Amino acid sequence: MMSTNTQNLRNVVLLGHSGSGKTTLIETMLYEGGAIKRRGSVETRNTVSDYTDIEHDRGNTIFSHQMFVNWKNNKINIIDTPGFDDFVGETVSSLKVADTAVIVLNAANGVEVGTEIVWEYVEKYQTPAIFVINQMDHPKADFEKTLEQAKERFGNKLLPVQYPYNSGAGFNAIIDALRMVMYEFPADGGKPEKKPIPKNEMEKANAMHNALVEVAAENEEGLMEKYFEEGNLSEEELAKGITIALAKQQFFPVFVTSGLKDMGSGRLMGFIDDIAPSPAERPPRKLENGGEISYDPADKTTLFIYKTLSEPQVGMVSYFKVLSGTLKPGDELINANNGEVERISQLFVAEGKDRTPVSEMVAGDLGVTVKLKYGHSNNTLNSKGLDRKVRPMEFPESRIRKAVSADSSADMEKLVTALHKIEEEDPTLKVEQSAELKQTILHGQGQLHLDLVKQRLQKEFGVKMNFGNPKIPYRETITGKSDADYRHKKQSGGAGQFGEIHMRVENFYDGMDEPTGMNIRQKDIEDLPWGGKLAFYWCIVGGTIDNRYIGAIKKGIMQQMKEGPLTGSHCQNVRVCVYDGKMHSVDSNDISFQLAASGAFREAFQNAKPQLLEPVYHVEILCPDEDTGDVMGDLQTRRAMISGMDSEGHYQKIIAEVPLAEMHDYGSTLRSITGGRAKFSMKFSDYQLVPPNVQNELVKTHAGLQEA
Ligand SMILES: Nc1nc2c(ncn2[C@@H]2O[C@H](COP(=O)(O)OP(=O)(O)OP(=O)(O)O)[C@@H](O)[C@H]2O)c(=O)[nH]1
Ligand SMILES: [Mg+2]
Q1: How many CB atoms sit inside 10 A of residue 373's CB?
Q2: Quick one: how many helices (H) and strands (E) in the chain?
Q3: Residue 384, Cα to own-chain centre: how many angstroms?
Q4: Alpha-helix residue ranges (DSSP H) falling in 199-296
């Protein structure tokens, strides 16, 4: 294995809608670079990238995979990613370590929602990007339409470097406006013959070429002058100018390929090799403590783990990027996130499932190691004495929640342990053991995401998981005001129990007036652990209740606040004034007053216009124009409040506030209404009043359950 300099590295990630042909194209790239002798296919389940059983079962990429190929003097690291937005976490983590994104479009489908999703992250991470219009051999391939849609959505910085001379089943030639040549491929693809551009294509090719020259000139001052004087640039100058333009995201080149037929991928590789930035040409990375780090192989070592995946027999496999220094097997590093000392016993480069040991790895390179103690994704590992921590990756909010259960309580324990293991690998999965709802809830990106977790649990851990409906974390409050006098009295043989409390409850809000006609002796305004407040006022005069019972009384109130009178949900924003009552010299004690307070609170609360609140989410949907009516129609059945609509190219963006209770299975519904052409995100917004009919139903159901 040749050793590499940082300048000779290229880290590219392939991104795009599911089925655009990323995995197939990578297979071709590896083949063209000589990394493999035969091209596998997704259908025959023998691609380098999609090597896990789960991927073979589905015929899709599910996990990001690392590969590399040597091309001339450079090592090109390639990361494949899944196109399904259920696995968007893999896109986020791969982009974090890539220096160039290759966005693959399906020429038959144009810009798809998966393209939109990845673009959002490419923009966020400010990653240089190359667009590839793939599947030019597809009978419905339409280069012009795809290019037009892409420009409309992603802007005029997209400039074609190539266009297809023909397309569809007979596709075999590409006109290259950078090199001003036509590539004509043999029927089974591979190495093309270089031909002069046909005369009737010259005008179009020249116009494209000039656009490229202009973008090159605009991005380098010296070149601009020369261009003005001479009206042209040399091949070298052109390359220099577009290298700068690509690195500064002032230019997004568009290429043409058929991954399946192995046409165009060699030229794409050549461009990545020549023009795409090495890590050394990327801006320094910002650190959490405000510092910066640049890819210097002579510096001390820092690496960043972007992904982990557990493998049978091996355990945890950690994928990382060397951010500085030169890493060698045996190096001891300190995990900046938890202080653990880690010894890198083995160092590998990955080629899908195959790993080859290497003796060193320079700054900028992507590698793999195994058996770290705590090497989770988002962790930074440093040589001793360094205080560097990479800003963590931010993953999208979850979009689906399901209650999970096992067949027995022993299995449940195993299930939760296994879920936590998968959670460590997959930052878009959250396991919540909700004491409030008395359920274990799994949060993820979509039904497919959770189904695959279920499949993995069964296969890798031998645990069965059942899905159920998750409860909704409602809240209870009051909108009115009410008083209650409550006496707790119990006479049973020996010592009795006695406590009487007179209390007022009302809706609490910040800045409300102090209660009138009360003698306030003590007041505590507490933030409740589940949100909202409890204001407790002690207004007892003349010692009708002794101060020493305050603690017990508060406890009684809190018991009810925790499991509210209406539906057993947490209560919030209540002011309680205790202003009178009675004690008994023998029978009164803490428990008596706790029970009296509980009873008084329940009674007063129920008479103070109690109101259920429900969590409402801010939902954003992007769907094709023609599906807008159906998407809106469905939202109307979900009690949604539409707060905005915007046209974005041939898409509509719909913004709505939707109760969580109505978001059940939304992802699946949206997928089926739009044929998988829409995306959505959801984020907790606030608690809002539940409509009376819904509240009545919920209260009735709760009462029924209590009785049962
Ligand atoms: N006609 C044609 N079909 C292609 C081409 N590239 C891929 N396909 C087919 O399209 C399907 C999807 O290809 P993949 O390479 O798995 O697509 P992907 O982008 O990796 O999909 P995900 O892993 O789901 O994101 C397969 O059936 C491929 O054979 C192409 O250039 N031309
Ligand atoms: Mg794939």
Answers
A1: 11
A2: 16, 38
A3: 32
A4: 202-218, 221-230, 235-247, 265-274
- Which part of the chain has CATH 3.30.70.870? 400-468
Architecture of domain 400-468: 2-Layer Sandwich (3.30)
pLDDT for the residue 194 = 98
- What is the rounded distance in angstroms from the CA atom of residue 318 to the CA atom of residue 53? 19
β-pair type (315-324, 522-527): unpaired
Task: Return the closest-CA partner of residue 386 out of 320, 301, 321, 305.
Answer: 301
Identify the CA nearest to 255 among candidates 178, 160, 347.
Answer: 160
Per the CB < 8 A criterion, the answer to whether 447 and 87 are in contact is: no
Backbone torsion region of residue 299, taken as left when φ is above 0, otherwise alpha when ψ lies between -120 and 50, otherwise beta: beta
Cite the residue boundaries of each domain of the chain with CATH code 3.30.70.240.
612-694
CA 106 – ligand 1 centroid, Å = 9
Closest protein CA for atom 8 of ligand 1 = 21
pTM of the model: 0.91
Q: How far is the CA of 18 from the centre of ligand 2 (A)?
A: 7
User: How is residue 250 written in tokens?
Assistant: 């002032």
Query: 7-281, superfamily in CATH?
Result: P-loop containing nucleotide triphosphate hydrolases (3.40.50.300)
Closest ligand by atom to 448 CA: 1
Q: How far is the CA of 257 from the centre of ligand 2 (A)?
A: 16
Instruction: Say whether domain 476-608 belongs to CATH 1.10.3720.10.
Output: no
Distance (Å, rounded) from C-alpha 506 to C-alpha 610? 10
Q: Return the beta strands (E) in 288-399 as ranges.
A: 292-293, 302-311, 315-324, 326-327, 332-335, 341-343, 348-351, 354-357, 361-362, 366-370, 380-382
- Distance (angstroms) between ligand 2 centre and the Cα of 360 equals 30
Residue nearest atom 9 in ligand 1 by C-alpha distance: 21
Please give all residues whose beta carbon lies within 6 A of any atom in ligand 1, as ranges: 16, 18-24, 41-43, 60-61, 82-84, 134-135, 137-138, 258-260
- Which two tokens mark 465? 């998981």
- Supply 85's token pair: 């937005």
Q: Which residues contact 652 (CB under 8 A, 6 or more apart)?
A: 622, 623, 624, 625, 628, 631, 645, 646
- Give which of 624, 679, 647, 649 is closest to 154, Cα–Cα: 649
What pLDDT is stored for residue 86 in this prediction? 94
pLDDT of residue 233: 86
Q: What is the 3-state secondary structure (H, E, C) of 204-226?
A: HHHHHHHHHHHHHHHCCHHHHHH
User: CATH 3.40.50.300 in the chain, residues?
Assistant: 7-281
Distance in Å, CA 48 to ligand 2 centroid: 11
CATH code for the part of the protein at 295-382: 2.40.30.10
Ordered DSSP codes for 516-563: TT----EEEEEE-TTSSEEEEEE---TTSS-GGGHHHHHHHHHHHHHS
CATH of 612-694, one of 1.10.260.30, 3.30.70.240, 3.10.290.30, 3.40.50.720: 3.30.70.240
Q: What is the pLDDT of residue 413?
A: 93
Query: Which residue from 24, 58, 142 has its CB within 8 A of the most atoms of ligand 1, so it is best to mutate?
Result: 24
Backbone angles phi, psi at 165, to 5 degrees: -75, -35
Scan for tokens 């000039």, then name that residue: 210
pLDDT-flagged residues of the chain (< 70): 1-3, 493
14 CA: nearest ligand 1 atom: 19
